Amino acid sequence: xxxxxxxxxxxxxxxxxxxxxxxxxxxxxxxxxxxxxxxxxxxxxxxxxxxxxxxxxxxxxxxxxxxxxxxxxxxxxxxxxxxxxxxxxxxxxxxxxxxxxxxxxxxxxxxxxxxxxxxxxxxxxxxxxxxxxxxxxxxxxxxxxxxxxxxxxxxxxxxxxxxxxxxxxxxxxxxxxxxxxxxxxxxxxxxxxxxxxxxxxxxxxxxxxxxxxxxxxxxxxxxxxxxxxxxxxxxxxxxxxxxxxxxxxxxxxxxxxxxxxxxxxxxxxxxxxxxxxxxxxxxxxxxxxxxxxxxxxxxxxxxxxxxxx
Length: 309
Ligand code: ATR
What we know:
The structure is a single chain. The chain has helices at about 15, 40-45, 65-75, 100-105, 125-135, 150-165, 180-185, 200, 210-215, 260-265, 275-290, 295-309; strands at about 25-30, 55-60, 80, 95, 110-115, 115-120, 145, 170-175, 200-205, 220-225, 250, 270-275. The chain is of the alpha/beta class. It folds into two domains: about 5-120 and about 280-309, Leucine Dehydrogenase, chain A, domain 1 (Rossmann fold, 3-Layer(aba) Sandwich), CATH 3.40.50.10860; about 125-275, NAD(P)-binding Rossmann-like Domain (Rossmann fold, 3-Layer(aba) Sandwich). Strands 2-1-3-5-6-4 form a six-stranded mixed β-sheet, sandwiched between helices. The protein is globular. 2'-monophosphoadenosine-5'-diphosphate binds next to helix 6.
């Protein structure tokens, strides 16, 4: 058994499963994939069913997704998770894409169904569940500011917030280049007047905008979707002047568990949560797509706690 498999390991079922008690039937595809926590999340949930299957990490170079999926189908895999940088490339290989994944323009879960390859994205719905669990509020009722809205994670979360019909959405990014065309795609979701005039419900701002602080007065939820905070020495991506006691602050980063942003937010009296709940809920939703009728949340939650500690 290996920590990480490659395309060469997919040559035959006997080769892939040599030394293992159970056949590999689900995988996470990424590049690099070594640090993916998905096996720690999914294997205990698989073990809690009578499926008798293994969940493996599969290293796939960009450009090889179609080949990898073809081989996995031939080996009778149930489905896969797809992670960075393959979420866009994998979408093109699907024969059917659910409405949510289509709106997000990316997938993170595939189910092989006969000759069909069904694509889903559980990141957005997982975010909605995470916010509800951590803060007991609904995304649709909130005024939301997303820092790093131009990155892959930021775009998925922003699109989900738009789909939910959130009250306001401020897209913030270091460079405006990525969020200008993106905000045009989201504009139709904000065409109706709710709280403010139509122009005000969706805004884009550069991270160094002097307006960031005054805009944050009218925000309920701040989300960090940048990679700033992954290193323990990283600063907060947001100036302290933008943080207030009424804010809910969610950092998509879960390792380290308390980023500088979350520390600053706590110091300002805000409520905070990290990305562990997003990891958990997107995983549980994927599992339920492969195995309808199961409820893996409890098993996954304790598995994740052990993996992190
Ligand atoms: P992706 O998710 O598309 O692979 P990424 O390089 O991981 O992108 O970056 C994710 C987000 O973090 C982006 O919004 C990025 O901002 P830019 O679009 O301006 O590159 C943001 N980001 C990365 N490093 C940053 C930093 N030092 N300060 C502010 N934002 C940063």
